Fold this sequence. Notes:
By secondary structure, the protein is α/β, with parallel strands linked by helices. It folds into two domains: 21-114 and 222-318, Rossmann fold; 138-219, Putative methyltransferase TM0872, insert domain (DNA polymerase, domain 1). Helices cover 39% and strands 16% of the residues. The protein contains 13 helices and seven strands. The protein has helices spanning 21-28, 45-52, 64-77, 91-97, 114-117, 144-150, 153-161, 166-181, 188-194, 209-219, 222-236, 250-262, 294-299; strands at residues 35-38, 56-61, 81-85, 103-109, 237-247, 282-290, 307-315. It has a seven-stranded mixed β-sheet, sandwiched between helices. The relative contact order is 0.16. The model is unreliable at 1-14 (pLDDT under 50). It binds S-adenosylmethionine (SAM). S-adenosylmethionine binds at residues 16, 18, 39-40, 42-46, 60-63, 66, 87-89, 109, 111-113, 136, 225. The site of S-adenosylmethionine has 23 residues, from α2 and β2. S-adenosyl-L-methionine binds at residues 44-46, 61, 88, 109, 116.
Amino acid sequence: MGNSISAEGAMDGSQHEPVLLRELLEAAAPREGECWIDGTFGFGGHAVALLDRGARVLAMDRDPEAEKRAALLQDAWGERLSFVQRDFAEMEAAVSGIGWGAVDGVLLDLGISSGQLDDPSRGFSFRWDAPLDMRMDPTGPVTAGDLLQELGEEDLAKLFAVVARPGESRRLARAVVRARGQGRLQTTGDFVTAIGAARPSHRRIHPATRAFLALRMAVNDELGSLERALPASLRLLSSGGRLAVISFHSEEDRRVKHFLREHLLQKPAATSGAEERPQPEEGFVRQARFLPTNEERLRNPRSRSARLRVGWKATRKDL
Ligand SMILES: C[S@@+](CC[C@H](N)C(=O)[O-])C[C@H]1O[C@@H](n2cnc3c(N)ncnc32)[C@H](O)[C@@H]1O
C-alpha cells in the first residue's frame, strides 16, 4: 500500500507542536484582515499562528474538548476568533452561520491530536485498556465497538484494507470475528489480543498501529469528511484564496493530490485543437507539496509522516 505512518497513525503523544507551521505560513501567507477557516482546531497551534498574522479565524473541530480550549483563547483574540463544533465537511453552513461569505484560506490538519490520543477514556490508543470508542465527537452515532461487533467479515476486511495489505486485512477480519464469537472483544486490550498484536515489536511501528488507524478512520468516516470538505473549500475560497491540507497517511494525501490536480486550471494558451475540452470556471492556478525538514522530524516525531499540500485558487477570468 505504500503507507507511511508513524506509531499509532501519526501521533505519538509528544508535546503538541503544530506540524509544518513555517511551511504553511510561508506558502499560504495568511495576511491581516483575511478570513481563514481552521477546520481542525485541536490545540489551536495553527489557529493562533493565523491570528498572529492578523487573520480572522473560524475554528472548527468535532471534539467538544477543542471548544473548551478555544474558549480559553477568546479573551486574547476577541471576535477575530469564532469556534463551531462541527465536522469540517459542513464548513459552508458554519461560514454562513457566522455571517461570512467567501474565505481567503482553508486549513485542514487531519487526524487526531495528542490530547485525544493521550486520554485513555477515548479508546484511541493501544497503550491503555479502554472502551472501544474512538469517536472524535463523543455524540457520534457509531463507536469502534459497534463496528467490531456488527460488521460482517467481508466488510471488516474492507475496513482494514484502507491501511493494510489484502492478506493482512483478511487475517485481521477473521481474528475479530473469532474473538467476538467467543465474547472476548469488549476493550482496546481485547482488540490488541484478538489481532495477535500483543507481542512487543522491535519495529518502529507497533503491530496494532494499522488496525487502530483503520478502525478510527472508519468510526469517524475520515476519508468521507475529507472528500466532502475539498469541493466545499473550493466553492468557499475567493480568487487568490489558498487551500492547505496536512495529511499523515497516503490514502488522505492521495485524495488531496488528485483533487488539486483535477481542478488545476489550464491557461487558455495551453489548450488547443483536438485536446481542448471544456474548462471549469474556477479551480487552482498552481499547487505545491511540502515535507517537514530533517530538523522538524527530529524535534517532533509526529511530523515524520506529514505532508502539506497547498492549492492557490483562481477563476478563469483571472488567468
Ligand atoms: C491533528 S489535530 C489538529 C491540531 C491543530 N492544528 C493544532 O495546531 O493544535 C486534528 C484535530 O482535528 C479534529 N478533526 C479531525 N477530523 C475532523 C473533522 N472531519 N471535522 C472537524 N474536526 C476534525 C480532531 O478532533 C482534532 O482535534
